[in-house]
Write a structure and sequence with these properties.
Bound molecules: flavin-adenine dinucleotide, iron/sulfur cluster
Number of strands of chain C: 4
Distance between the termini of chain C: 41 Å
Strand content of chain B: 15-25%
CATH topology of chain C: Rossmann fold
Structural class of chain C: alpha/beta
CATH architecture of the largest domain in chain B: 3-Layer(bba) Sandwich
Order of helices and strands of chain C: EHEHEHEHH
CATH class of chain C: Alpha Beta
Number of domains of chain B: 5
Largest interface: A-D, 56 and 44 residues
CATH topology of the largest domain in chain B: FAD/NAD(P)-binding domain
Chains: A alpha+beta (343), B alpha/beta (667), C alpha/beta (148), D alpha/beta (279), E alpha/beta (267)
Distance between the termini of chain B: 26 Å
CATH class of the largest domain in chain B: Alpha Beta
Radius of gyration of chain C: 16 Å
CATH superfamily of the largest domain in chain B: FAD/NAD(P)-binding domain
Number of strands of chain B: 34
Shape of chain C: globular
Oligomer: heteropentamer
Shape of chain B: elongated
Number of helices of chain B: 18
Helix content of chain C: 40-55%
Structural class of chain B: alpha/beta
Largest sheet of chain C: 4 strands, parallel
Chain lengths: 343, 667, 148, 279, 267
């Protein structure tokens, strides 16, 4: 790849940048080392625990825009009157998500598409609007990663507002991708320099395991395919995969509190749960785990691209890492690709 | 749609003195679902009740909360009133603002607020109450009495005389139990058999009593009012209809050396035998274990001699099934025997005997025809030592309880001995003399004072033989634990009374509880001493605990009254507050997963298995089922069930949850 | 500021403690009004979840009381209850729940004075412990954004 | 409002409660806020999320006709947490409603046709909306036939309206109850809906059939309609799948690619045939 | 383990069982549960120290076809699970063949469940010092510290229920968390909801937990929730002398009692 021009952010400038962001009222999430593991956490200052060479966290940052539990509104009511108190949307936090890998940054696309589909979800969209994504190219990967198979590259800046790539010296090559990115840059111009370099050379090489569009075609008419059952035998139907996934959006609406006061809450749910689709009558359209596994795959790789024009998988491999019984998604997708197409 | 009426009672001034009843009514009228809330001086008075009834009709109330005294006081009153107004009585609840509020707190706002909270809680509960119907179960008016000792006999006769059918099952060839073995009885010293035999005959002849001797209960199913019992009639090898009881067979049987159970091994019987002359029924049975024909395949002497050809060698055990509405357990007790007292040489020395053996020796119908002669050589013992508490109250032997009868019968034995052997000396080792009972203490004093029994307070450590004498070594605790040694001709051990041998097994068959000593457990030690935990099964006599005859008979009559009380109804009406296992739409059918952990917590064995079957009879699921006729509504199962599959009517999850919520929500 | 008045819920069985509390009333023995009673058929019916629910709904303390051992109207409900509490209490303690806020007691139908005493000592004890803020904090936790 | 909150319900006052059958009630609901009322409109077949504070939301179709202004109605059966709580509400109390969601019956396209309504049990509500809508525009349509069945006489909902329809000369109403469900004075048919339908044999010519009912009834009714000559594009029905949001986000109701909340609940038999078995 | 493969082949080819639940090579160096239904698949079976999943969980998931005989490869925890499940009437002995694997990796063929019971009772069932140490560490904390510790841990939980799904003893078709009238356990994964969930889980497994640690292993967020049930197991063993998975017939610790159960806190 050719050499290009980048802004340069020196390693030493990071503390100052973080201080500025914090001072401007932003909440910063960054990948923080904790023993063997690295997980996203809120930080107010730059520290050496912030890991810019992690492979992947267990949990994504989905929760910053689609919290695992979100209060929609409070209500109060008595015998004759009821009132609803919405949250103050203007008080929603201004988040800077620091150091997400391209898969995670890209994951906001399907979230956005879902929460915008015909009906705008004010909660999500407000949070998203207040969020600045600082992406980080991947210098490492593991066998679970398969971003290249879902048309994302370890260096792609799609979904990020600012894109960082760490160079040999440990400094960052910076791309300003969006206006929001520009704002951050403008806020701390003095910390940035200029450099020209070839960022591709610092990036890990993730092998491509399958072709996304081929897969999409293969899935057409696969509804009755026998492989769903074969693949899902071991699946124990927990929600681990969906809960770590940066793009899964299934949720539940619940009331909490008593009749006179309380709140309505939106909280994560998973299509893998047996009672997810259970009718009150006892009938369950997705009664078996294989039907639910099929829903998971088809939703991401067939229904979403069809209905909202975006795939529901970013190749981060989280679900495969988290699954207690090794339901490795890319392995299964490859197997589906290998199936003779049933015409 | 909830339409609740709240009725706040002043109870004269009992409530209104500290609680602002008007305010309670006013505030509670704002609770959603409350359509009327009023206060009144005396709710339980006629006008008060009429007011409630009128509101029920006028306001079409779906629930009533009476804020007044304790429900333990007036719940029936107000529920009846509601019922009369056409509201299901179980849709009425009481808020206890008197005992739990006005009487225990001072007059102030806090007290009024508490009253309001109590009402609110009950309003939320009653909103979730369901109309309940009292449970009705038909009653089969036949009783089964198990055990034909004096207790069983008494119960059977009492019940039969009330006009109900009774089936009696006795495992021995004759009824009579231990009492028939006794010589004379304390404290009156009347002849045991003389008073018992007529009653035994009455049992046999009573038109309402069906007697099965040589029979045992095989299994029990069902529940109060509706038991199904399988009875095993052991083969007697005899056609009882043909047998006239002439006894010829028993005299001709060549097997002569079987120790007689009735005489406690002090005499012998034949292989075909009647246990004792007054036996009821007075017909023999063949003891298959000892009969030569059954052992070797030949003999048949009895068959040959029988004038009516009543012997049936090919007879087999027969299982009959009967339906009964109640059971009386009267299987009695037993006493500890050989092996249990190696230190006393019991079983080793022929002249160390137990109390029952002494009874036989003292009995006019016994092996010695009532003369006190010792087993070894038939000599009349001149010095005789009685040991009370042989095994009883002895934790080391595992029997920490008092056998209750020994003190008395030992005194009796001493008296009987002195009456028969005037020059003899009776020594009695005892721990304490327990003689509580009408004329009991007088009786023991008589033994000491009139009949000169020598009471020594202390334990016997050892008995051994020396020169044909039994040396009894003990300590006299009243004499500074001085060692006492007595050269006795005979020793009688008042061995501990214990549960009858098959008690545990029987209890398990019948699902009644039993204590650690295998005596059957009463439902409540004070208030329900003749009932078991299993509704419809009652206790009589020594099977519950060792007792003497008067106590056994009294309890037996008590049990009979319980049975007759039960039988005085064609149907049983039970509190509908029972547990139910939920049912849901298929394919789940119920959230119960059939772990049956609930089964073992239920104190009443009310939980059964229910199979849910498809149309073609395939078992789809096995779930728990609570038999509403048996469940007493304690709810112990409810709190155990993890998946919340059992609920208890009247105290449902929804109800109690709402109560907790309401009580705290606005506090 | 007023003195802290704790909210205490009592779960009692119908046959012994409820009747015992009735006797307290009949005997006109005064006790702290902070305690409110919910009636159960038997201690065996009391689900541990109700205890948690009471805390969640704002109770500062809880009394659970039934018949003395061997006196259970249903013979063994209280024995079962006792075992469950032994286990449940261990659990609560292990989780850092303040088990001193739960009084377990046996109060018979004849022990009216004892009921008053149990209530008063419980209320005093909880006054000393103060409001159950830890639990309240957990309940009132804002369901706001977090990273997971 | 420029940026409405799609989760926020309208507050509705219960104006009238009608007990239809055991465990089945109809609520007439009025907006507590005039502005909301003025802006609100819906079409036959659409549904909404009804909520009880503290208990949650639950999905029912709007059972009243869009031609009747100023209120909406819903008919529901008490089955679970929310519906039980709803059933406990009285006139004058407030509940929440958000909607309308979903597609509609193409009533405009039915002009000049015969209409055949076939309903079973509690499934009459979605149908009732269309029936009244069409009756209010009666002149647009030709023959008007309603076949309605329930388990027992007691289970028939909208009893007063059934009477009204029965008495109207321009409506042919056939009611039926399952064998064994009749009362001594029952005058209607006895038999299952499909059987009664087959017997009545309405003409398929220029006729639109609208079928709502329990899955088992629908399953047996479609073949009979086809046998009678109905085209699958002329047969309409509604589908129900569990849903939370009502607008295609919560992930429950889809049947393959099709979202019942957005692409439904109204489907033609022809469309149904294309769907995988996931409802 | 050639013997294992051999045995599997035999069982399948003479139709003694139709399915074998065992382990196979997974991805990225993991082992994972496998379902073998024909002799030629048997070669994929493995057994080594990576094979830690408690396979008993599959015996109550009604995914396996009914009326077929199933063989299951059973490490020690699996054996204990099977005994507990059988004592709770969840397994039909006639349809389950248990291929035990001893601690030193030898195959044990069990005749019946009673046979397993016997085997279990010959093993050392005490808690390891490591397990004890983990519990002791928490026990040693002050009440406030314990509260903080668990609040912290629970606040991470997002209620994916992997812990429940992975536990063989959590076989309820409708878990208490799915029960909504009343809503015993708050659905959302906020602090209270999580707290309620974890107490419930622990109490429901009190004395039933066989100590396989599968729950915390399954937890993607590594919550040490196995300590809760372990603590209770220890306590119940100490107080009532009961340990799960030891007996087919002995009543479960919390569905029985002894009149002389000793406690110190009831007034
Ligand atoms: C040595 C001695 C002296 C005594 N002296 C006196 C005295 O002087 N005064 C006095 O008041 N009391 C005396 N007693 C006590 C007296 O014997 C008992 O109170 C009395 O026998 C109790 O009667 P019961 O019917 O309960 O039991 P039992 O007499 O034991 O009768 C039980 C009957 O049930 C039958 N049975 C047992 N199990 C079964 C079964 N599974 N199925 C069917 N039938 C079964 C037995 O065969 C027996 O016939 C004395 C006891 C002893 C041991
Ligand atoms: C388009 C459409 C139109 C409908 N129209 C009507 C109509 O007009 N009239 C009518 O009566 N019905 C209608 N229904 C059906 C109706 O929505 C359900 O019967 C109703 O929602 C059940 O009510 P519930 O909330 O009381 O039940 P519950 O089952 O108690 O539901 C309460 C909530 O708890 C949750 N829940 C329920 N069961 C479980 C479980 N097993 N595990 C975990 N959580 C659970 C659910 O999320 C539910 O929202 C319609 C459904 C749809 C999709
Ligand atoms: S695929 Fe794995 S993580 Fe997902 S539900 Fe199944 S077992 Fe759980
Ligand atoms: S499906 Fe799996 S790999 Fe894809 S984005 Fe979700 S967690 Fe990552
Ligand atoms: S009711 Fe509960 S405890 Fe009893 S068998 Fe069913 S699930 Fe088990
Ligand atoms: S409520 Fe009590 S008596 Fe009734 S079934 Fe349950 S445990 Fe048995
Ligand atoms: S597996 Fe972990 S995150 Fe999931 S519910 Fe259990 S404890 Fe919570
Ligand atoms: S947590 Fe309790 S109710 Fe839920 S599955 Fe486990 S044991 Fe059953």
């Amino acid at each position: 790849m050719a050499t290009e021009n980048y802004k340069l952010l020196k390693k030493e400038s990071l503390p100052a940048l973080f201080d500025k962001l914090t001072a401007s009222g932003k909440t910063i999430y960054a990948p923080v080392k904790n023993g063997e593991k690295t997980e996203f956490d809120v930080v107010t200052k730059y520290s050496n625990d912030i890991n810019d060479e992690y492979i992947q966290t267990v949990q994504s940052l989905k929760g910053t825009v689609f919290p695992k539990v979100e209060k929609l509104f409070d209500y109060k009511s008595d015998k004759t009157d009821t009132s609803i108190q919405e949250p103050d949307f203007s008080k929603f936090p201004q988040n800077v998500l620091w150091g997400l890998h391209p898969c995670d940054a890209a994951a906001f696309r399907p979230l956005d598409a879902t929460f915008r589909w015909d009906y705008d979800d004010k909660y999500f969209l407000t949070r998203m609007k207040l969020t600045t994504v600082v992406g980080l190219s991947c210098s490492k990967h593991d066998d679970y990663c398969f971003c290249t198979s879902v048309d994302i590259s370890p260096a792609s800046s799609d979904g990020s507002d600012i894109m960082l790539t760490k160079n040999k010296a440990g400094d960052y090559l910076v791309e300003i991708v969006t206006e929001k990115g520009q704002e951050v840059y403008d806020m701390a111009k003095e910390l940035f320099g200029e450099i020209s370099d070839d960022k591709e050379s610092y990036i890990t090489d993730v092998p491509k395991k399958f072709d996304l569009n081929e897969l999409n075609k293969n899935l057409d008419g696969s509804f009755e395919a026998p492989y769903w059952l074969a693949q899902s035998m071991r699946c124990i139907g927990c929600g681990a995969c969906a809960y770590v996934c940066p793009t899964c959006t299934c949720f539940d609406l619940q009331d909490e509190g008593a009749a006179n006061k309380g709140s309505r809450i939106k909280c994560w749910d998973s299509c893998g749960f047996g009672h997810f689709t259970l009718h009150t009558s006892g009938h369950n359209p997705r009664e078996t785990q294989s039907q639910r596994w099929r829903q998971r795959i088809l939703h991401k790789f067939s229904y979403m691209p069809d209905r909202i024009k975006v795939f529901g998988c970013m190749g981060c491999g989280r679900c495969s890492r988290a699954c207690p019984v090794d339901m490795n998604i890319s392995e299964n997708l490859i197997k589906i690709m290998e199936e003779p197409k049933n015409e | 749609m909830a339409r609740i009426g709240v009725f706040v009672c002043h109870c004269g001034e009992n409530i209104s003195a500290t609680v602002d009843c008007g305010k309670v009514a006013q505030v509670t009228s704002d609770i959603p679902g409350v359509v009327v809330s009023v206060d009144y001086k005396y709710m339980c008075s006629d006008p008060g009740q009429t007011m409630i009834k009128e509101y029920i009709e006028k306001e079409k109330l779906t629930g009533v909360v009476v804020a007044a005294c304790s429900p333990r006081m007036h719940e029936p009153t107000f529920r009846r009133a509601c019922g009369e107004a056409g509201l299901n009585p179980f849709l009425c609840e009481m808020a206890n603002v008197r005992e739990h509020c006005s009487w225990v707190h001072d007059k102030n706002d806090v007290t009024t607020d508490k009253a309001i909270d109590i009402v609110r809680t009950l309003v939320e509960k009653v909103k979730r109450n369901e109309p309940l119907m009292p449970i009705k179960v038909p009653v089969t008016k036949t009783a089964l009495v198990i055990g034909g000792g004096v207790a069983g006999i008494q119960s059977a006769l009492d019940i039969a005389n009330c006009g109900h059918k009774v089936i009696m099952v006795e495992k021995e060839p004759s009824i009579g139990g231990h009492m028939s073995q006794l010589s004379e009885t304390f404290p009156t010293l009347d002849c045991s058999q003389c008073i018992l035999t007529p009653r035994m005959v009455e049992v046999a002849q009573h038109p309402n009593i069906t007697l099965y001797t040589y029979a045992e209960v095989e299994s029990l199913d069902g529940f109060i009012g509706n038991f199904k019992v399988k009875i095993r009639k052991k083969a007697k090898s005899l056609d009882e209809k043909l047998c006239t009881g002439c006894g010829l067979c028993c005299t001709k049987c060549p097997v002569k050396n079987i120790p007689s159970e009735f005489d406690q091994g002090l005499s012998n019987r034949r292989a075909i035998y009647v246990p004792f002359p007054q036996a009821v029924p007075n017909k023999p049975v063949i003891d298959k274990e000892h009969c030569t024909y059954y052992i070797k395949g030949k003999c048949k002497v009895c068959e040959i001699v029988c004038p009516t050809k009543a012997i049936r060698f090919d007879q087999e055990d027969e299982i009959i099934e009967v339906e009964v509405g109640a059971l009386v357990l009267a299987t009695g007790f037993d006493i500890k025997r050989a092996n249990f007292f190696p230190e006393y040489g019991y079983g080793k020395y022929k002249d160390v005997i137990d109390g029952l053996q002494f009874e036989r020796i003292a009995s006019a119908s016994g092996p010695t025809l009532g003369e006190i002669r010792r087993p070894s050589d038939g000599q009349i013992p001149k010095k005789i030592v009685f040991l009370a508490c042989a095994g009883s109250r002895d934790p080391a032997k595992g029997i920490e309880y008092c056998s209750k009868i020994c003190c008395m019968y030992t005194a009796k034995h001493a008296i009987l001995y002195k009456h028969k052997v005037h020059d003899g000396t009776a020594y009695i080792f005892y721990m304490d003399i327990r003689a509580a009972g009408k004329n009991y203490d007088e009786f023991t004093r008589r033994a000491i004072e009139e009949d000169g029994a020598k009471y020594i307070r202390g334990r016997v450590s050892r008995i051994y033989e020396r020169d044909g004498k039994l040396i009894v070594v003990g300590a006299d605790t009243l004499m500074n634990a001085k060692t006492v040694e007595i050269e006795a001709d005979m020793v009688v051990l008042a061995t501990a009374g214990v549960a009858s041998p098959g008690a545990e097994e029987l209890a398990q068959k019948l699902h009644v509880s039993y204590d650690q000593h295998k005596f059957f457990a009463e439902a409540h030690p004070k208030l329900r001493p003749v009932e078991t935990n299993t509704a419809g099964i009652f206790l009589a006599g020594a099977c519950q605990n060792v007792k003497d005859i008067p106590e056994s008979v009294a309890q037996a009559s008590g049990a009979a009254v319980k049975v007759c009380g039960l039988f005085s109804n064609d149907e049983l009406t039970r509190d509908p507050s029972v547990a139910v296992v939920n049912r849901t739409a298929p394919p789940l059918f119920s959230t119960c997963v059939g772990c049956f952990l609930c089964q073992s917590v239920c104190p009443y064995q009310a939980i059964e298995k229910e199979e849910i079957k498809s149309r073609d009879g395939k078992i789809l699921k096995t779930i728990a089922f609570v038999n509403p006729s048996v469940c007493q509504g304690c709810g112990t199962c409810v709190a155990l069930c993890r998946s919340k599959s059992i609920d208890i009517l009247g105290y449902t999850h929804k109800q109690v949850y709402a109560e907790v919520d309401a009580l705290l929500n606005t506090l | 500021m007023n003195e802290f008045e704790p909210k205490v819920v009592a779960f009692v069985c119908n046959w012994c403690t409820y009747a015992g509390a009735d006797l307290t009333g009949t005997s006109r023995i005064k006790y702290a009004p902070n305690v409110k009673i919910i009636r159960f058929p038997c201690t065996g019916r009391i689900d541990f979840m109700l205890i948690l629910k009471a805390f969640a709904k704002g109770a500062d303390g809880i009394i659970i009381s039934g018949c003395h051992p061997n006196d259970c109207h249903y013979t063994s409900g209280n024995f079962h209850a006792k075992r469950r509490w032994m286990v449940f209490r261990t659990m609560l303690d292990f989780l850092g729940v303040d088990v001193n806020r739960i009084t377990f007691s046996w109060v018979s139908a004849a022990e009216g004075a004892r009921w008053a005493e149990i209530v008063n000592t419980t209320v005093d004890g909880i006054k000393k412990l103060g409001p159950y803020d830890n639990y309240r904090k957990m309940v009132n936790e804002e369901t706001e954004v977090n990273n997971g | 409002m420029s940026n409405p909150n799609i989760y926020k319900p309208y507050l509705m006052k219960i104006d009238k409660v009608t007990e239809e059958a055991p465990f089945v009630k109809t609520f007439r609901l009025k907006f507590t806020n005039e502005e909301d009322a003025a802006k609100f409109n819906f079409k036959a077949g659409q549904f909404g999320e009804y909520s009880v504070a503290g208990e949650g939301e639950s999905t029912f179709c709007v059972a009243s006709s869009p031609t009747r202004d100023g209120y909406i109605e819903c008919t529901f059966r008490e089955t679970g947490r929310v519906t039980s709580a709803l059933a406990g509400k009285e006139e004058g109390e407030i509940i929440g409603f958000r909607g309308p969601y979903g597609n509609t019956f193409p009533i405009d396209e039915w002009k000049g046709k015969n209409l055949l309504f076939i309903a079973g049990g509690i499934a009459l509500p979605p149908m009732r909306c269309v029936i009244w809508n069409c009756l209010d525009l009666r002149e647009n349509f030709k023959d008007f036939t309603i076949v309605y069945g329930a388990k027992t006489v007691n289970d028939l909902v909208y009893k007063h309206e059934l009477k009204e329809w029965e008495e109207r000369p321009d409506v042919k109403l056939i009611t039926t109850v399952d064998p064994g469900g009749e009362t001594p004075d029952w005058k209607g048919e006895i038999g299952f809906v499909p059987t009664v339908l087959e017997k009545a044999a309405p003409s398929a010519d220029n006729t639109i059939a609208i079928v709502c009912g329990p899955p088992i009834m629908i399953k047996y009714t479609f073949p009979i309609l086809e046998k009678l000559g109905f085209k699958d594009t002329d047969i309409f029905t509604t589908l129900e799948n569990r849903m939370k949001c009502g607008f295609g986000k919560c992930g429950r109701c889809n049947v393959g690619k099709v979202y019942i909340c957005k692409d439904g609940p109204v489907f033609t038999y022809a469309a149904l045939k294309q769907l995988p078995a996931e409802y | 383990m050639d013997k294992l493969k051999q045995l599997a082949k035999e069982l399948l080819s003479n139709n003694q069982v139709q399915i074998i639940v065992g382990y196979e090579e997974g991805t990225v160096g993991k082992a994972r549960p496998a379902f073998i239904s024909s002799p030629d698949q048997a070669d994929t079976l493995i057994y080594d120290e990576r094979c830690i999943h408690n396979l008993a969980v599959y015996l109550t998931q009604h995914k396996l076809p009914g009326n077929t005989k199933i063989a299951v490869i059973a490490s020690f925890p699996v054996m204990k699970s099977i005994i507990t499940l059988a004592s709770e009437k969840q397994l039909d002995e006639n349809f389950i063949k248990v291929i035990g694997i001893s601690k030193d990796n030898n195959i044990i063929e069990f005749k019946d469940f009673a046979d397993i019971e016997r085997y279990i009772n010959q093993q050392d069932l005490s808690f390891t010092p490591e397990e004890q140490a983990l519990i002791d560490k928490i026990d040693a904390m002050s009440m406030e510290e314990r509260w903080e510790y668990w609040q912290n841990e629970f606040s991470r939980c997002f209620k994916c229920y992997a812990c429940r799904s992975a536990c063989p003893m959590c076989y309820c078709t409708l878990c208490i968390t799915d029960f909504n009238q009343p809503q015993w356990v708050s659905v959302p994964s906020h602090k209270l909801g999580n707290f309620e969930w974890h107490i419930n889980r622990a109490m429901h497994l009190a004395g039933r937990c066989i100590g396989c640690d599968e729950c915390s292993r399954a937890c993607p967020l590594d919550l040490p929730i196995n300590l809760l049930t372990k603590k209770l197991s220890m306590d119940i063993q100490k107080q009532f002398g009961y340990s799960a998975g030891q007996s087919l017939t002995e009543p479960y610790a919390l569905s029985t009692y002894k009149p002389d159960d000793k406690e110190t806190f009831i007034r």
